[in-house]
Write a structure and sequence with these properties.
alpha/beta; Rossmann fold; 2 domains; two-stranded antiparallel ribbon
Length: about 350
């Protein structure tokens, strides 16, 4: 009887420990010895959290976007120590214009700057091609195959025009992106900039492989040019880090984006994957301790009440699970003891 009781108690303890370990793993936080005390987010709809749950155009703080997850981990407050000035549909040229016009100057001195740009320089051309040349919107082809003859001379001519326009955009992007980095560095010599490569959201679409390969090659070319700009910028001092989102999403666009629902943006899983990569990059960098801590003083608005609620919900779920395991174990132990006592009594 003693052996059975000890074994049962050991089993309960193991279950509780395993539950605690799982809870600890799920609630891992960004760990930085000297974390950044201010963060600015620039770029396109990847950084606004477009199409995520609770997303509202013009409010970049209300979703589980990768940027908000980072800001939440760093305990930064929106409009105070964290500004997300990304904009849906933004191209590299528009971002450069905004930088020149001083649109971001109120937060350009942030210690950490997250940047996503380049996708609209390519995708806009392709989406226009689908609509104008094939007569389909993205959502029209997400769940079925395209009944278009890509050997048709007229359609081939339009496809070649698309390729020419994309090549022109890539060439322009290289020069523009280089100037973007230089201008940010000119305005803030100490910023640590984290940018991202462009992923391929079209790989899971039912379009001919020949068209997929063309577009994939153009995305890779743009990403190569982006990396080249970063290498040039880092010649004197490593100040720009590249997150390889392309390879993080490669072969997984159906799972990491909303493409099968007709939307090119990352879904919650995609944003979590980007967040983890950005988090890893931040953890490798040591930020200076600021002499002015006014931006980190209490009183700022949390990035998103929803994020806090999710964390509380996860913690509550863990507690409920622990309680359930504990009650179940006690009941099981009681049942075993009663069974053994009755069995022993019957023998007597």
């Amino acid at each position: 009887m003693r052996r059975i009781i000890c074994s049962t108690v050991s089993l309960i303890i193991c279950l509780l420990l395993m539950t605690g370990i799982a809870a600890s793993a799920n609630n891992s936080k960004l760990e930085v010895i000297n974390p950044p005390h201010s963060m600015l987010v620039l770029g396109d709809s990847i950084s606004t959290g477009c199409m995520l749950y609770s997303y509202k155009k013009g409010n970049n703080y209300n979703t589980q976007s990768y940027a908000n997850l980072v800001a939440s981990d760093l305990h930064l407050s929106q409009e105070r120590s964290y500004l997300n000035l990304a904009s849906d549909g933004l191209t590299s040229q528009e971002l450069l214009t905004n930088l020149r016009d001083g649109k971001y100057d109120k937060a350009i001195d942030s210690e950490l700057i997250l940047l996503t740009i380049g996708g609209n320089d390519l995708l806009g051309e392709f989406l226009e091609f689908l609509k104008e040349s094939i007569g389909l919107d993205l959502i029209d082809i997400s769940g079925t195959s395209i009944n278009a003859d890509f050997t048709n001379p007229e359609l081939m001519a339009k496809l070649n025009e698309l390729i020419s326009n994309i090549d022109s955009n890539i060439s322009g992007f290289s020069e523009t992106f280089s100037e973007i980095l230089s201008l940010i560095r000119e305005k803030n010599k100490n910023a640590y900039i984290i940018c991202q490569t462009v992923y391929n959201p079209l790989e899971c679409l039912p379009i001919p492989d020949s068209v997929k390969n063309i577009f994939d090659g153009k995305i890779n070319l743009l990403n190569q040019n982006l990396r080249s700009c970063v290498r040039t910028q880092n010649q004197d001092k490593v100040c720009v880090e590249v997150i390889d989102v392309y390879h993080l999403f490669d072969g997984k666009s159906a799972d990491m984006t909303n493409m099968l629902d007709g939307d090119i943006h990352p879904n919650a899983s995609g944003h979590k994957k980007i967040y983890e990569a950005v988090k890893s990059s931040i953890e490798k960098h040591s930020f200076p301790t600021p002499t002015d801590t006014s931006t980190t003083e209490s009183g700022g608005v949390p990035v998103s009440g929803r994020l806090d609620e999710i964390e509380k919900s996860e913690s509550s779920s863990v507690l409920v699970m622990c309680a359930f395991v504990g009650v179940f174990g006690i009941c099981l132990l009681s049942a075993i003891i009663v069974f053994i006592i009755r069995k022993k009594h019957n023998k007597i």
